[in-house]
Amino acid sequence: MKFQNPAEEAAMPTYRIIDADGNVVDQSRDPSSTPAEEIIQWYRNMLTVSIMDLIMFDAQRQGRTSFYMVSAGEEGIAVGSASALSPDDVCFLQYREQGVMVQRGFTLKEMMSQLFANKDDNGKGHNMPVHYGSSKLNVHTISSTLATQIPQASGAAYALKMQRLINPNVPPRIVACYFGEGAASEGDFHAALNIAATKSCPTVFICRNNGFAISTASIEQYKGDGIASRGMGYGIDTIRVDGNDFFAVREVMLEARKRALEGDCRPILVEAMSYRVSHHSTSDDSFAYRAKREVEEWKRRDNPITRLRKWMEKKGIWDEDKEKEARASIRKDVLREFAAAEKLKKPPLRSLFEDVYEEITPEARTHMKELKELIEKYPNEYDLSPFEGGLKSLQ
Amino acid sequence: MKHIPRWKRPQSLVITPTPTLSRTTTTTTTTQFPQSQCRRYVSQGQGQRRRYASASPAASSQRRLNVPIDFATSPLLHQTSKTFGRTPGLPAGADLEATGGSQRLNLYQAVNAALRTALAESSKVLCFGEDVAFGGVFRCTMNLQDEFGPDRVFNTPITEQGIVGAAIGMAAEGARPVVEIQFADYVFPAFDQIVNEASKFRYREGATGANLAGMVIRMPCGGVGHGALYHTQSPESLFSHIPGFKVVMPRSPSQAKGLLLSAILQSPDPVIFMEPKILYRAAVEEVPNALYTLPIGQAEVLKPGADVTIISYGRPLYTCSAAIEAVEKERPDISVELIDLRTIYPWDRPTVVKSVAKTGRAIVVHESMLNYGVGAELAATIQDQAFLHLKAPVKRLGGWTTHTGLAWEKLIFPDVTRVYDAIHEVLDY
């Protein structure tokens, strides 16, 4: 009789291509053959996320937006994995994957419109900042509820598979689903992986294990070998990857995508290890539960952006001047779109009642009328100047 | 052994058979039940045993109100196809001949027919849930996997949040998933997916235009005679408190087919489709064979009247109909209007308000609990919009505010006596 003791098992290894100094450690996957301009674009996309983070964090502190969440330290996971996807692939995000949006082509203007909830916002002013979405880019709009997107991703992948069964001319597509290690404790994670495995859904589940769920360290989140060890229990091909290693994330994702579409299709679980160097959100001061020294050490020791930069410098495709130029031009672009988005009006009042159902219900119409009459009766009590079209839209 | 006196089995103790109630014994018992109506079933299969009754059999001979509903003569069912014309949306007359006629189906067979029609009509329709593949614990998905294949009709692991979550993802990518929650009582693990995700999906997607058209969550609901705490619930008011879903409950086979087809093939919004499981076998009527749809969001005036309006939906409509018959027999000078709400949310306010403005009296009847129930919303709207017409306070009848204890089910839900008494009460106010 032998009880299997997880503590006696070796931890699942972490896949890596380059080390913290930018040296290639897996020669079989040397990224050198990739055209330099592609690598530079990926790097710039990571920089864009990082620079926008700083600006928007400060903007929230100044009260110019209501909320923000940075993704410092996790730019590599988002941009690296998204770089391996086809534009037709469908994405479900948690909220710390701005890099996926940037990599897929979400413009700074679109981002800022969402953050300021102005009239051009895809979400029509309905959602909190950072809850991006774009049908053009096949990214479903983010919701705050943790892990709910995971079973949705299983279902969406099943639908994509069925589309191909019905019409083989449809290009093969997967669903990429992102979540943190804290969200993986939700029941929806369990439901999703089990359904994806039993119904052979081409879903790639990407867990960002950054060590913290707000204040809860992973030691209080689970007792097993991270999230990756669970994949095996569901019968899912699984890999753990160094999330600070852009190339490793990208290669893993390319392979995961390929495997997900093989044969009758199947789900894949990727656990990308990183460290949340930022606060959880603008509503959180993380030094209340962890030492500043620890964070500073992580920032200094390792980070996906500096790691890729070191590799690029070694290859001779990047240098200090290019870095300065890139940072300055990105910063300028971000500030320009920031200023433009901030000036735009909010969506019309009518948008408050739209999209609950396809058609505004008779009940909602009476609410619109009542709101209009109330504002007309007490015009000095309401400031309608921020809203496009003022009271007129409430017809 | 002591001789058991041969008392005539009181009709009031008859329970409508349900194939299976326990989630743990779902595979074998379903086919043992004859296809016929409940009374025959009971006389054949249940022998002399008293089961789950709440009242003394000795008193039953005195009863005239709380006697079993005779579905075979109920005016609420299309006993022949000749009455199709009175239900807008049902193919009647020449239409019916051209589209393949009609046949007698019970409610589960009508649901099955609707699912079959929908699966045949659109390759986007998918049908899944727990134990759906072998036909479902209530037989609603019988033979569908054989006909449409395991890719389109399949079992899922036992995870309600997973079933609804997956359906959202499928609908978001253009499929039309019709999922089954085995009992409405077990929908609560999926509440987050229903309330926070599916209900808000179109709203948060905004200008991206993504939506969940064609997503339908089916669930058997309501009392069944012996369902106790977890096989009797009717959570429609909980769904109706959150905008985003349309909440529908049919009362009959023809309605079930038309409304379900409308939900699957035409609705631009997700639909929660609640099937009163006590009617699965009990309610039998002619159902057109064609693909037809009934409008979601519209109530149906089942019986015109001048003095009281009763608004109900699902199973209690039969209770109301029996009570109305009893009252009208006693008081030939009065007449009661009966309205089937059909869609519980968003509901047909104009039809209800217009009726109450005419009659001046209203009673709302449902099985689910009174507190914060559907009746509260209706009563509040009626007093708001028909205040000057009211001759009596709006009366609400619902399940008592307790849980459905096994031994007392018949005392908990509104019965014919309660509705009968309420009609007199509002008439004599």
From TrEMBL, chain A:
<comment type="similarity">
    <text>Belongs to the BCKDHA family.</text>
</comment>
<keyword id="KW-0630">Potassium</keyword>
<dbReference type="GO" id="GO:0046872">
    <property type="term" value="F:metal ion binding"/>
</dbReference>
<dbReference type="GO" id="GO:0009083">
    <property type="term" value="P:branched-chain amino acid catabolic process"/>
</dbReference>
<dbReference type="InterPro" id="IPR029061">
    <property type="entry name" value="THDP-binding"/>
</dbReference>
<keyword id="KW-0786">Thiamine pyrophosphate</keyword>
<comment type="function">
    <text>The branched-chain alpha-keto dehydrogenase complex catalyzes the overall conversion of alpha-keto acids to acyl-CoA and CO(2). It contains multiple copies of three enzymatic components: branched-chain alpha-keto acid decarboxylase (E1), lipoamide acyltransferase (E2) and lipoamide dehydrogenase (E3).</text>
</comment>
<keyword id="KW-0560">Oxidoreductase</keyword>
<keyword id="KW-0809">Transit peptide</keyword>
<dbReference type="GO" id="GO:0005759">
    <property type="term" value="C:mitochondrial matrix"/>
</dbReference>
<protein>
    <recommendedName>
        <fullName>2-oxoisovalerate dehydrogenase subunit alpha</fullName>
        <ecNumber>1.2.4.4</ecNumber>
    </recommendedName>
</protein>
<dbReference type="GO" id="GO:0003863">
    <property type="term" value="F:branched-chain 2-oxo acid dehydrogenase activity"/>
</dbReference>
<keyword id="KW-0496">Mitochondrion</keyword>
<dbReference type="Pfam" id="PF00676">
    <property type="entry name" value="E1_dh"/>
</dbReference>
<keyword id="KW-0479">Metal-binding</keyword>
<dbReference type="InterPro" id="IPR050771">
    <property type="entry name" value="Alpha-ketoacid_DH_E1_comp"/>
</dbReference>
<dbReference type="InterPro" id="IPR001017">
    <property type="entry name" value="DH_E1"/>
</dbReference>
<feature type="domain" description="Dehydrogenase E1 component">
    <location>
        <begin position="44"/>
        <end position="348"/>
    </location>
</feature>
TrEMBL record, chain B:
<keyword id="KW-0560">Oxidoreductase</keyword>
<feature type="domain" description="Transketolase-like pyrimidine-binding">
    <location>
        <begin position="105"/>
        <end position="282"/>
    </location>
</feature>
<dbReference type="GO" id="GO:0007584">
    <property type="term" value="P:response to nutrient"/>
</dbReference>
<dbReference type="Pfam" id="PF02780">
    <property type="entry name" value="Transketolase_C"/>
</dbReference>
<feature type="compositionally biased region" description="Low complexity">
    <location>
        <begin position="16"/>
        <end position="31"/>
    </location>
</feature>
<protein>
    <recommendedName>
        <fullName>3-methyl-2-oxobutanoate dehydrogenase (2-methylpropanoyl-transferring)</fullName>
        <ecNumber>1.2.4.4</ecNumber>
    </recommendedName>
</protein>
<dbReference type="InterPro" id="IPR033248">
    <property type="entry name" value="Transketolase_C"/>
</dbReference>
<dbReference type="InterPro" id="IPR009014">
    <property type="entry name" value="Transketo_C/PFOR_II"/>
</dbReference>
<dbReference type="InterPro" id="IPR029061">
    <property type="entry name" value="THDP-binding"/>
</dbReference>
<feature type="region of interest" description="Disordered">
    <location>
        <begin position="42"/>
        <end position="61"/>
    </location>
</feature>
<dbReference type="InterPro" id="IPR005475">
    <property type="entry name" value="Transketolase-like_Pyr-bd"/>
</dbReference>
<dbReference type="Pfam" id="PF02779">
    <property type="entry name" value="Transket_pyr"/>
</dbReference>
<dbReference type="GO" id="GO:0009083">
    <property type="term" value="P:branched-chain amino acid catabolic process"/>
</dbReference>
<dbReference type="GO" id="GO:0003863">
    <property type="term" value="F:branched-chain 2-oxo acid dehydrogenase activity"/>
</dbReference>
<dbReference type="GO" id="GO:0006091">
    <property type="term" value="P:generation of precursor metabolites and energy"/>
</dbReference>
<feature type="region of interest" description="Disordered">
    <location>
        <begin position="1"/>
        <end position="36"/>
    </location>
</feature>
